[in-house]
Amino acid sequence: MFYRSIQKCLAEWLNKPNRKPLVIRGARQVGKTTVVKEFSRQFDHLLYFNLEKREDREIFEQDFSFGDLLKALFFVRDVHLQESSLLICIDEIQNVPGAMACLRYFYEEVPHIPVIASGSLLDAVIDHYKGSFPVGRIEFLYMHPVTFSEYLNASGNEQHIAAFNAIPIPAYAHQMLLSQFHTYATIGGMPEIVHAFITTSDKSILGSIYEGLTASYIDDAAKYCSGRTMFQVLRHILETSPMEAGKRITFQGFGNSAYRSREVGEALRILERAMIIQLLYPVTTHEFPLLPNKRKSPRLQFLDAGLMTYFSGIQKSLLTVSDLNAVYRGRITEHIVGQELSAADPKRKTSPLFWVRKQRGAKAELDFVVPYQNLLVPIEVKSGKTGTLKSLHQYISMSRCPIAVRLCTHMPAVHQAKTPDGIPFTLLDLPYYLSGKLEAYLLWAFG
After folding, report:
1. Looking at domain 6-142, which of 3.30.450.40, 2.30.110.10, 3.90.245.10, 3.40.50.300 is its CATH number?
2. What pLDDT shows up at residue 383?
C-alpha cells in the first residue's frame, strides 16, 4: 500500500460532525478496496462485506428489517453491536441494488457507525432505483488510477516528493521530475502496475498484468449488458478504445467496426458509467455557464494512459524519446493531462473540457479549458517554445481572456505575450508533470 490522496478525504469525512455513509466510486482495479482496508487500520474492528461473494450477498438479500440486518452483520462477523471503534465496509455494493437503499437507515438510525460502500457500476444502480435511492443521506468520493503525485509517493524518494510539492519547483529538480513523469506516463497509473514496477524496476513483467486487467474488464462486460449482441459491442469497444483514446470519435463504425451509432453509443455510455472511459464533449463558448455541446463529436478519454500505450503498441517506442508530445501526434501527453485533471479532486466527478469554434468547418480546437475564478482559461499542450499557439490565440482574440497556460517541457515561467492581432495576455508555462497541480500554479502565477 502506498499513499493515495483520497486518504486525506477519508480522514476529513470521518471527523465530520454530521457524517453520512460514504460511497467510493471508481472503475475496477483502481484501488478502492485497498485504500478502505488501509483506512480501517485505525479501528479495532472492520466489518467487511464483499457482495460479489454469495455468503455476504445473501445477508443483504434477505427481507430483514434494518434492525435485524444490523444485528446479522455484527453476528456473522462476531462483533458486539456496542463496540465503539469499528468501521463497516460494503464492497461491490452494486451487486445487491437494495443494499444501496439501506444506507439511508445507517444515516438515520445509527449515524455514529461509520459506513463506507464502494462499487464499480453504481450509476446503473442509481438509475434503476431512483425511487428508493438515499438522496441527501450519503456522500461520494471518486477514485481514479494513480496520479503522478501518488506515483512519486510510491517511489519513496523523499527528495523527489519535496521538490514536486514546492511551488514553484526548484530548477535543479526539473529534469529529474520530467524523466519520472515520462516513465509514469509510459507505464500508467493502475495500482498493480505501479507496485510491480516500483518494486522491481522491470518493465518486461508488466505485459501480463496489462493483459490481466483488460481481461477482467472484458469478463465484467457481461454484467453491464442484457444481451449477446451488446456484449460483443462492449468487448469490441474495450479492445479498441486504447487505440482510439485521445481522438475525437464518431459512434458509427467505431474502431473500424460495422456497428451502428445507436449500439456504439449505448455501449460507450455503459462503460462511461463504469468509469472505464469518459466522453469529453467540447464547449463552443467562452462564457459561463459551461454547457458541453453534444451535437459535436466527443474526445475519448480511456481509463489509463499505460493501458493506452501498451495496447496501442507504442509503449516500447516511448522509452527512446525525450518529449512525449513528439510521438503519437501528441495524443499521449493530452491523454495523461486529461487523466491528471480528472483525478485532481476526489470530491468531484470531473470531466475535463476542451474548446472548439462554433462555426461549421472551423478547425480551431483547444486541448483544454479550465474554470478559474470568473475566467475560462485556455490550455495548450505543446512541445515547448517551438509549438505554435494558433488555436489559443484565436480563443484569446474571441474571449479576451487575459491569461493562458502552455503545458510543455520547460520550467514554470510567466510571459507577457500578444496574439497576432495584438491582443495582450499573460502566458503561464508549466511542465507536463505539474498538470495535476494546475489550480495551485494558477494561484501562484495570477493570484
Report:
1. 3.40.50.300
2. 59
